[in-house]
Amino acid sequence: MNGFTLLELLLVIVIISLLAGVAVLSVGDRRENSLNNEAEKLVATMRWLADQAVFQQQPHGLKILEQGYQLLVWNPTTTAWTASSSYQLPDYIGINPQPPEQLSIEKQPPIVADIVFYPDQDADNDHIDLSIKDSDQTVQLRIGAYREIHIVQN
């Protein structure tokens, strides 16, 4: 005989169905895992900013952008914030508080830090929310005193 038995065909169909189910479930988890990874990266970045503020004895800040954030350093000579680098979040992750809309592209306002880390090991008490857009999945980063940054699942 050159054919497959009904039992062999059913076994192959069951195995393929199980593999497809596992693949579908793992794709759904990927966005939630990405949200947690981005929250952990942001916490590590904020802790680094807090360390730099102490080591360099000058304030460091974090500016929330429309789809990411920017690292800032206070320049005492110009008495203004200077952007050192920025990070873009994936398109499906939102960050709050959202920055206000720009009124005019011609005249850019000076950079203002949303969260400031001071050399005396203190920080602005605040929080940042990261969320998956079009979903109720959110993560809140609570910022306390020096290096006291906690991730809270909502």
Textual characterization of the structure:
This protein is α+β, with helices and mostly antiparallel strands and 154 residues long. The protein is built from 1 helix and 8 strands, in the order αββββββββ. It is elongated, with a radius of gyration of 23 Å. The chain has a 4-stranded antiparallel sheet, covered by helices on one side. A 4-stranded antiparallel sheet has the order 4-6-7-8, with helices on one face. It has one domain (27-153): minor pseudopilin epsh fold. The chain is 33% helix and 31% strand. The N and C termini lie far apart (60 Å). It has one helix at residues 6-56; strands at 60-65, 68-75, 80-88, 93-96, 115-117, 126-132, 138-143, 149-153.
Secondary structure category: alpha+beta
Element-level helix/strand string: HEEEEEEEE
- What is the multimeric organization of the chains shown? single chain
What name is given to the CATH topology? minor pseudopilin epsh fold
Radius of gyration: 23 Å
Report the mean per-residue pLDDT as an integer. Answer: 83
Query: At CATH's second level, what is the architecture?
Result: 3-Layer(bab) Sandwich
Give me the side-by-side strand order of the main sheet.
Answer: 3-2-1-5
Main sheet? 4 strands, antiparallel
Low-pLDDT windows of residues: none
**CATH class division:** Alpha Beta
- Taken from the alpha-carbon principal axes, the silhouette is elongated
Distance between the termini: 60 Å
Strand content: 25-35%
Number of helices: 1
Query: Quick one: CATH superfamily?
Result: minor pseudopilin epsh domain
Q: Helicity, in percent? A: 25-40%
Whole-number tally of structural domains: 1
